[in-house]
Amino acid sequence: MAQMNYPHVPDNANAGERVVFNALYHHLPHEYYVWYEPTLFGNKKSARPDFVALGSDIGLVIVEVKDWSIDKIHAANRDKFEIFMGSSLATRTNPEQQAEYQSRALKDELDRYRHTDPENYNKLLRKEGKHKGKLAFSISALVVFPNITRKDWLSSDLELHKMCNEEFIILKDDLNNEIVERFRKTCLFHTNLTHLQLDTLKWMLYPQTRVPWSQGRLHTLSPDQVGIARIDTFLPPQAQEMSRKPQAKLVRGVVGSGKTLILLFRARFICEQNPDWKILVLTYNKSLSQYLRQIYRQIDDNNNRNIEIVNFHKWCRDILTRHGLFRSPQNENSQIGLINNILREVNVTEFDPQFLVDEFNWIKERIDYRQWSDYPDPQKIKRVGRERGLGRDEQQKRLLIYSIFCKYQERMAHNKMCDWADIPVMVLQAIEEGIIEDKQYHALLIDEAQDFAPTWFRTAFKMVKPETNFVFIVGDGAQKIYRRDFTWKELGLGITAQNSYILRHSYRSTREIIEVALEVIRDSKTLVTELEDAGDSMVEPDKDYAEFRHGPIPMLFSFESLEQECNSIAGEILSLLQQGYLPKDIAILRRHWAGQEKVAQELKKHGIPCKVIKGDLDITEPTVKICTFHSIKGLEFEIVFISGLEEFHVNEQIDAQGEDSQQLIDQQRKLLYVGMTRARQLLYITSGGTGADWLADRLRHKIEEMQPK
Fold first, then answer.
1. What is the pLDDT of residue 418?
2. Which of these, 256, 258, 276, 131, lies nearest to 191 by C-alpha position?
């Protein structure tokens, strides 16, 4: 079996490419390297053939695949083919000429190394004989017609066998064990590349996959090491390199830059190199952990049982349960009820119960439990990330809040109760008291780390074995949708410029979607301040690279009611399904749970399969997903509907012009940004009522600005 750069046929391959992929994989020998849709010479647009094969006895072979059946070819000559495309005709360059062009382009790009890297280029040249100084290997081309048999090819009224040279053509009948001979026969002359020459060629062809080698050898990642396992996309070249860096601790990047894939490939790489290691991958929410598990199963055929992928709170819950320490956490309504009782007892009316719930959660998530008593002192504990100031007499208010907090904790303990913010604290306390064993994992990997709280990190870090001290974190501060602030420095990981990396290429959303999404957050002063306080910065995607796709401009629609909005969304989805999209390609996001059932009812009325996501998420389930912005964190869909734009407003009774108001508004903006950038191809933004006019006007202006003049 050949060494492929994908562990399985990519989802974006057409039917013919799938057939050829499997044939090359199964019938070419293991010492051959085959790349599907490779990005050659560092993103050169002119060098993107369907396949490139490399072998010691075949040199380099360009393979172009034409997914045409015999009846789709209307006319052909040595220069052009006319192909039926639906009800119309399309003219295409003769495939043999196209393949020859690709091989010439490849040779020209290699020839550049004659001047830029003559030492390594000379390794590829013949050392003696009449061809001394010429390339020591053949660069040839093949065209594969996987849907056309030899009988049909030879008997065609168009005399297709005269339009392409026989030695450069592979037909359906040839896609078997004999295919390796077809590759060898296409060579222009005998080739026998050495291991050094093969390594040199890979080094030149794929500079993004180069790995430093202590002995000075030219070493690149093998295709299966950088194998792609991404639904409907691929691991970016820079991401291939990041996933293999042993010293990397932090990877930041723009949305869709492949951070999660890097983390998963990192986990797989660790499993391969250290099969006895226990590896823990933590995420924030349940749906993201399920998504990661589904992807990981695709990239690790061994289904390694030593890797655990789980959301943080379930991991904590499982640990506490095993030791008989778990208590069912109270929900927010129960918390508010208990706080109301305490407020009445102490006759305090100046604090809203919801505010105190958030403040108590912040104390537990932000401050080491052994330092809770420092909360009343503003000099010792800064209230970063709360987005609500205490105004005058801050220290007195802190003292009062802390006294209520102590009563709250005492009442919870007396009744053997807890809340969700207590769960990681309980684990941490049990570890430090010796009840729960620490240092259980050889490696810890954290996805969407910007949404983790400092206490969560402290708890997770306790579980890493000191002899490995292997911690790998990926995140993006611009996507922080939970009110938790920390600096990378305070985590104590020793993160520096040398072991942190920034990915600036977005491979998910189109340019148009990214542009509109950035308009939502680009001038957010509080976001910039948050990032700076955390030792971070705003990362915008580069725009000058081949894979940054163009697509339709996002669409903005306003309706007078939720009913009209839902009916319009259902009608548009029906149209999309008729165009060939699948229900699983589509997600509908709403700010709150309210309204989701109404959307679901309207879709079902139109016969559209859908599911409201409130917990488990199966990305392969053939349904339209309806969920909140929080539950879709880290996921992606071909088409996203942002429904209920009017819900993006601030309900709290605060000064509309004050700093607190701006922080709350910016929190809404970040949430919307995250939702918009879940879309790969199409983005719809709809509203079914009044509200958030400031946001609708901003988006409308940007979209109008992007329209062609």
1. 94
2. 131
Can you tell me the distance from the alpha carbon of 17 to that of 23, in angstroms, rounded to the nearest whole number? 10
Q: Which amino acid is at 101?
A: Y
CB-side neighbour CA atoms (13 Å) of 546: 14
Handedness of CA 517, 523, 525, 530 (dihedral sign): positive
Q: Is 214 exposed, middle or buried (0-12, 13-18, 19+ CB in 10 A)?
A: exposed
What pLDDT sits at residue 613? 84
What is the structure's pLDDT at 294?
A: 82
Q: For residue 706, what are its two tokens?
A: 């992007």
Q: Exposed, middle or buried: residue 478 (CB in 10 Å: 0-12, 13-18, 19+)?
A: buried
CA distance 515 to 545: 16
Burial of 33 per CB tally in 10 Å (0-12, 13-18, 19+)? buried
User: What pLDDT, on a 0 to 100 scale, did the predictor assign at position 131?
Assistant: 81
Rg (CA), the chain: 29
Residue 182 belongs to what H/E stretch? Answer: helix 179-185
Residue with more model confidence, 534 or 543: 543
153 close to 127: Cβ distance less than 8 angstroms: no
Residues 6+ apart with CB under 8 A from 163: 76, 77, 78, 81, 94, 96
Average pLDDT rounded to a whole number, residues 449-473: 89
**Other CB atoms closer than 10 Å to residue 465's CB: what's the count?**
16
Instruction: Report the distance separating Cα 94 and Cα 102, nearest Å.
Output: 13
Mean pLDDT, rounded, of the chain: 82
Query: Does the pLDDT at position 336 exceed 70?
Result: yes
Task: Indicate the pairing of strand 80-85 with strand 88-93.
Answer: antiparallel
For residue 277, the tally of other CB atoms under 10 A from its CB is 17
Compute φ and ψ for 103, nearest 5 degrees.
-70, -35
One-letter amino acid of 205: L
What single-letter DSSP state applies at residue 594? T
Instruction: Give the sheet arrangement for strand 307-311, strand by strand.
Output: 307-311, 279-283, 443-446, 470-475, 250-253, 500-503
Q: How far apart are CA 62 and CA 504, in angstroms?
A: 30
Dist. CA 695–CA 709, nearest whole Å = 24
Contact (Cβ atoms closer than 8 angstroms) between residue 688 and residue 646: yes
Eight-state DSSP code of residue 172:
G
Which percentage of the chain shows pLDDT scores above 70?
80
74-130: per-residue pLDDT in tens? Answer: 999 999 999 998 888 999 999 999 888 888 888 888 888 888 888 889 999 988 888
pLDDT, average across residues 142-149: 94
CB atoms under 10 Å from CB of 397, counted, come to 15
Q: What's the rounded Cα separation, in Å, for the pair 61 and 77?
A: 24
Who has greater pLDDT, 248 or 60? Answer: 60
At residue 687, the 3 state secondary structure works out as strand
Q: Whole-angstrom Cα distance, residue 178 to residue 288?
A: 45
Q: Token digits for 292?
A: 């990661």
> What's the pLDDT tens digit per position in 584-634?
999 999 988 778 889 999 999 999 999 998 767 777 789 999 988 877 777
Closest to 95 (Cα-Cα) out of 168, 186, 36: 168
d(Cα 237, Cα 226) in Å, to the nearest integer? 9
